[in-house]
Amino acid sequence: MSDYYDRSHLPNFANIGEGNPELADKFFAYYGAVFDEGALSKREKALIALAVAHAIQCPYCIDAYSKESLQQGSDLEQMTEAVHVATAIRGGASLIHGLQMIDRTNQLSM
Amino acid sequence: MKTQTLTRRNSPLSNSQNQLNLLNTIDLTQTPNQGHFDRTVNHPLKPATLDIFQINLGKLCNMTCKHCHVDAGPDRTAENMDLATIDACLNALDQTQAHTVDLTGGAPELNPHFEYLVDQAVQRGKQVIDRCNLTVLLLPTKTHLPQWFADRNVEVVCSLPHYRKRNTDLQRGDGTFEQSIEALRRLNAVGYGQGDPKRRLTLMSNPVGAFLSGNQTQLETEWKTGLEKNFGVQFDRLITLNNMPISRYLEWLENSGNLQSYMTTLVNAFNPATIDGLMCRNTLSVSWDGKLYDCDFNQMLDLPLKMPIAPSIHDFDLAAWMARAIVTDRHCFGCTAGAGSSCGGAIADGNAENNL
Fold first, then answer.
1. Interchain proximity B166–A14, CB inside 8 Å
2. Which of B67, B153, B202, B242 is deepest in the core (most CB within 10 A)?
3. For residue range B186-228, what is the model confidence (pLDDT) as tens digits?
4. B192 CA to chain A: closest CA distance, Å?
5. Could you give the ipTM of this predicted complex?
6. What's the number of domains chain B is made of?
């Protein structure tokens, strides 16, 4: 293995079943059910997945859900807005901890 | 974002044999049946009842879209169906029970005999479909067409890759979206898109890139909401088609480095439930010069009907058409991938592929 990430892993994700087929089967069945059309459309779910992919910074997921979002009918502007939602939540999550910093600073300061 | 035709640029891919050679050099050894279509289908495709005469009136078009499988454009003035061939189409039509005359191009409206053909087909009681690029309706000589279509109950099937501007203009050229919206408003104004089956307005979407069409039903709902809310435009139904890996789309796939992965996607997404509904089974495809094909894609690849003698509309033989074997090659995976693809849109329910 020359790199930590390998493009060929994405289409071969099912190989994760090599060590434990039963758990892999359960995971993929669950995964498929999650992305089925439901109260949310497949397009909405793909955009959520795309945003989460950026939040967790998973290159495999970004690859897969960029394509899936396009395929489900989103365009670049809509996908970019989804990424900004992830960015805002990530940024907000950092920033709101600033209140903890302020509380602690006030506690420690004269 | 405008391009020029392969023919005008003297591109090697303007030669259909070069297109077939390129398709067959793609390494698909990692796919089921190594990308061999007939082995994947597992039995020869059989003709069904002849329902549709699809007449390609020529390669002349006022647009030059990046994905065009016809390599149509303003420079393709030489390839236009003449009146004698149109009359031969009508004579052949009279020998069959086909219920639909499906007119395509290029921009079929630019053929000088277009209105004659439509009138003749309507007089015969046929359902007439005009495959319209929308922008042609704004040309000074064509502004009468919306009302003219409405008076004859012609179904208008309009190309619109996306209900938002960006992707439409990427595929079809800057400014196309705004012109398309204006043309749709004109069709709405004469009664199209209001649920009247005699004035049916259908939108047709090809993916803007190297991926498959989304779910037709789900997209239709979203498109109806988006076009109504943002532009006050209505339509009756949406059909989605996969892009065929031929002509200018093939060139784009190759130049963008997507050719291998797109073909792999098509082959891996093969859906046997699409076979019964494939358009090659119930459609006769006629080219501008009267030659006969299984579909418009075979027509563009110069793969004529497999018949004992060179097939022509001038001596059409329905019995021989029914007895023929359908001609296939690797491009056919475009019609069988995912939910499938035909001139009537998706064929079956389909899951394209696993994502992650």
1. no
2. B242
3. 999 999 999 999 999 999 999 989 999 888 988 999 999 999 9
4. 24
5. 0.73
6. 1
Predicted pLDDT at B352:
45
A60-64, B173-177, B286-290 — which is least confidently predicted?
A: B173-177
Instruction: List the single residue in B with minimal CA-CA distance to A37.
Output: B218
Looking at residue B1, what is its pLDDT?
A: 52
| Rounded mean pLDDT, A68-95 | 96
Whether B355 has a pLDDT exceeding 70, the answer reads no
Question: Rounded to an integer, what distance in angstroms lies between the CA atom of residue B8 and that of residue B73?
Answer: 9
Check CB contact under 8 Å for B208 and A70. yes
The Cα of B29 is separated from the nearest Cα of chain A by a number of Å equal to: 15
Q: What is the CATH number of the domain that holds B204?
A: 3.20.20.70
> What are the Cα distances from residue B178, in Å, to B154, B182, B185?
24, 6, 11
Note the pLDDT tens digit of each residue in A27-40: 999 999 999 989 99
Q: Which of B80, B65, B78, B79 is nearest to B6 (CA)?
A: B65
Using an 8 Å Cβ cutoff, are B114 and B149 in contact?
Answer: no
On chain B, the residues whose CB falls within 8 A of the CB of A49 are: 355
Q: Do A77 and B166 touch (CB under 8 A)?
A: yes
CATH topology of domain A41-108: AhpD-like (1.20.1290)
Summarised one tens digit per residue, pLDDT across range A56-65 is 999 999 999 9
Beta-carbon neighbour count of residue B54 at 10 Å? 22
| Edge-to-edge order in the sheet of strand B52-56 | B237-240, B201-205, B155-159, B127-132, B100-104, B52-56, B283-286, B292-293
Asked if residue B119 belongs to a domain, the reply is: yes
Residue A82, both tokens: 């989804």
B218/A71 touch (CB, cutoff 8 Å), yes or no: no
Asked if the Cβ–Cβ distance from B219 to A76 is below 8 Å, we say no
- The residue of chain A with its CA nearest to that of B350 is A36
Cis peptide before A38 (omega within 30 of 0): no
> Where in the sequence is the domain holding B113, given as residue range(s)?
23-336
The DSSP bridge pattern shows strands B155-159 and B127-132 to be: parallel
Contact A61, A55 (CB under 8 A): no
Q: Where are the domains of chain A?
A: 41-108
